[in-house]
Amino acid sequence: MGILSWIIVGFIAAAIATRITGNRQYGCITKIVVGVVGGLLGGTLDNAAGGPGIGEFGLRSILIAAVGATIFLAVLNAISTGRARH
């Protein structure tokens, strides 16, 4: 995938992940970064499970990136919640 495809997949994946986690405090650029990091995380996890990871632009890539972005946002929420308590 090219850089534009990663940006589009990242934004869509982060939009899905923010709906799942209920965390809507991020702006457009941050969502793209969260989605791209989620894509890398989801692709790595899929590859480790024996799948092909993220390849071509499509629904499968978006779903894998959304899973990774959801995990990433959950970790970020846990870290920020832990800091807020102390």
Strand content: under 5%
Radius of gyration: 13 Å
| Helix/strand class | mainly alpha
- The CA-CA distance between the termini, in Å, is 42 Å
The total domain count is 1
Unreliable spans are none
Helix content: over 70%
Number of strands: 0
Number of alpha- plus pi-helical segments: 3
What is the general shape? globular
How does this model look, in words?
The structure is a single chain. This protein has helices at residues 3-21, 28-48, 59-85. 78% of the residues lie in helices and 0% in strands.
List keywords for this structure.
single chain, 86 residues, mainly alpha, globular
Question: What's the structural blueprint in terms of helices and strands?
Answer:
Blueprint (H helix, E strand, L loop, with lengths): L2 H19 L6 H21 L10 H27 L1
Please outline what is shown here:
The protein has 86 residues and is an all-alpha fold.
